Structures are given as structure tokens and as C-alpha cells.
Amino acid sequence: LQFVREHPNGENESVSVDVVSTDISVGGVKLEVPDDLFKGVDCLGKQVRVAIELPKPLGEVRSLGIIRSVQASESGKKTNVGVEFYGMSPEDSQTLEKFFSWDSKV
User: Fold this and answer.
1) Is omega for the bond preceding 8 within 30 degrees of 0, making it cis?
2) Interval 50-104: pLDDT, tens
3) pTM of the predicted model, to two decimals?
4) Nearest Cα residue to 72 out of 19, 36, 47, 20
5) If we measure between CA atoms, which residue out of 74, 67, 9 comes closest to residue 37?
6) How does pLDDT run across 8-23, given as a tens digit for each residue?
7) Residue 2 · residue 16 · CB < 8 Å
8) Furthest-apart CA pair in the chain: how many Å?
9) What phi and psi values does residue 49 have, to the nearest 5 degrees?
């Protein structure tokens, strides 16, 4: 997950962090991020870049996304972030579709 964190002093910081996907569909992904990642930041509606590593031989898919939901996880140590995909390349969309058809056969 990659995004730009806007600080109250007006400075911006590019942030990249490895996170866990807890749910994925062709339209978006639910990510479990460290609790302090968005602390004090209104991130709803913010643009992010998402790279998802799928099982071999499918590889990685990338997309721009918009944060649509943010909520504390059940453990209280993580935050669940819902990201809606947009701007995914046709090739990556096809790879994601292959993942869903492949996954249902396993």
C-alpha cells in the first residue's frame, strides 16, 4: 500500500507499507493495516496505490484505489481499510479474474 500522508504543517510524506489483505474482489480489497498508520489523519476518499501479490504463477496486480471505509479491527491492534479499485490495467484485471476462477477450483 502506498499513499501520501498530509501533515498538519502542510508537508507531505510518501508512505509505503506491507499490509495483509483480509478480503478481495474485482471491485476492491479490505486491508489490515497497523493501527497507527492513519492515526490523526482523515483518510476517507484519499487515493492510494495498491500492489497485490497473488499465488504463483499469477504474480502481482496493481491498481489505484480510493479509501472508502476505515474501522478498528476486532483485536483493536489493527485497522481495517476498504479500498475501491479504479484505474487497474486490463491485463491486471484479467489476472485478478483468473485468480478468482483458479481459487474456486482449489
Assistant:
1) no
2) 888 888 889 999 999 999 998 877 776 788 899 999 989 999 999 999 998 875 5
3) 0.81
4) 36
5) 67
6) 677 777 778 888 887 8
7) yes
8) 51
9) -110, 135
Query: Around Cβ 81, how many Cβ atoms within 10 Å?
Result: 25
Query: CB of 85 within 8 A of CB of 64?
Result: yes
Distance, in Å, from the CA atom of 63 to the CA atom of 7, rounded to the nearest integer, reads: 25
Average pLDDT over residues 38-61: 84
pLDDT of the residue at 9:
75
Alpha-carbon distances, residue 90 vs 61, 73, 93 (angstroms) = 10, 32, 5
56 φ/ψ angles, rounded to the nearest 5 degrees: -65, 145
Q: How long, in residues, is the chain?
A: 106
